[in-house]
């Protein structure tokens, strides 16, 4: 409660401004930024108090329907921070930055990724959608450029021609994804955050992040589902 009542200092404001201009900030960068803002503003700094520092900012953002959220990268398990607008959880928040046709390509790419078995969509499959868009058809070359922009803006990430949702996208659109893909979107049974790059139990249907699967089954000779205890039929990563 004391935290909630605490005043926003210039250090808090500077931290928030940088976070907003970054789009998404990796955990170690956020910790450095926390120290820098406190020292510049000559306010109390403790290396283990980043979450409290953010809680104070969040208490002041609440009336504006905004929040700094922490999310974990599906690739490497590192923490990331992003400022989320709670008033618009839809893809519409991207509407000011992209054209209608670009947004349609993004939605269709999101469909492919979320409906896939492992949380990835190949560039071939995405580019095949380009000439089936309702808004207007898009040339493959154009579509390649648009995908590049989505990667630069940290909505998608790409590895060896395979695309998945960037950590920023997962943090900002978790609620949108859970409510719009109710039949397929699931939270990880281990860490309870939205799981895109995941494996799903064939028996009871729970999902686990690939990194959580790796950690959970480490050292087990016969991997079994943490919920129903049936044999885990996938190759563990």
UniProtKB/TrEMBL annotation:
Residue span(s) of domain RING-type: 188-229
Molecular function in Gene Ontology: ubiquitin protein ligase activity; zinc ion binding
CDD domains: RING-CH-C4HC3_NSE1 (cd16493)
EC number: 2.3.2.27
Coiled coil: none
Cell compartments where the protein resides: Chromosome, Telomere; Nucleus
Enzyme class: transferase
GO BP annotations, alphabetical order: double-strand break repair via homologous recombination
Major place of residence: nucleus
Catalytic activity of the protein: S-ubiquitinyl-[E2 ubiquitin-conjugating enzyme]-L-cysteine + [acceptor protein]-L-lysine = [E2 ubiquitin-conjugating enzyme]-L-cysteine + N(6)-ubiquitinyl-[acceptor protein]-L-lysine
SUPFAM superfamilies the UniProt entry points to: RING/U-box
Keyword line: Chromosome, DNA damage, DNA recombination, DNA repair, Metal-binding, Nucleus, Telomere, Transferase, Ubl conjugation pathway, Zinc, Zinc-finger
GO cellular component: chromosome, telomeric region; nucleus; Smc5-Smc6 complex
Gene3D superfamilies, alphabetized: 3.90.1150.220, Winged helix-like DNA-binding domain superfamily/Winged helix DNA-binding domain, Zinc/RING finger domain, C3HC4 (zinc finger)
Protein name: Non-structural maintenance of chromosomes element 1 homolog
């Amino acid at each position: 409660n004391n935290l909630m009542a605490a005043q926003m200092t210039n250090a808090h404001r500077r931290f928030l401004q940088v976070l907003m201009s970054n789009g998404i900030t990796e955990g170690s960068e956020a910790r450095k930024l926390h120290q820098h803002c406190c020292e510049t503003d000559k306010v109390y700094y403790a290396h283990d108090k980043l979450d409290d520092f953010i809680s104070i900012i969040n208490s002041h953002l609440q009336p504006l329907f905004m929040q700094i959220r922490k999310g974990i990268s599906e690739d490497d398990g590192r923490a990331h921070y992003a400022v989320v607008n709670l008033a618009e959880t839809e893809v519409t928040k991207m509407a000011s930055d992209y054209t209608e046709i670009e947004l349609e390509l993004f939605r269709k790419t999101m469909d492919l990724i979320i409906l896939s078995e492992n949380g990835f969509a190949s560039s071939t499959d995405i580019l095949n959608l380009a000439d089936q868009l309702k808004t207007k058809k898009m040339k493959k070359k154009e579509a390649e450029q648009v995908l590049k922009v989505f990667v630069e803006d940290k909505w998608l990430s790409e590895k060896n021609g395979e695309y998945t949702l960037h950590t920023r996208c997962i943090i900002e659109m978790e609620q949108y994804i859970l409510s719009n893909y109710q039949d397929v979107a699931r939270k990880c049974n281990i860490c309870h955050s939205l799981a895109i790059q995941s494996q799903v139990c064939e028996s009871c249907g729970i999902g686990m992040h690939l990194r959580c699967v790796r950690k959970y089954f480490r050292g087990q000779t016969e991997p079994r589902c943490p919920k129903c205890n049936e044999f885990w039929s996938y190759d563990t990563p």
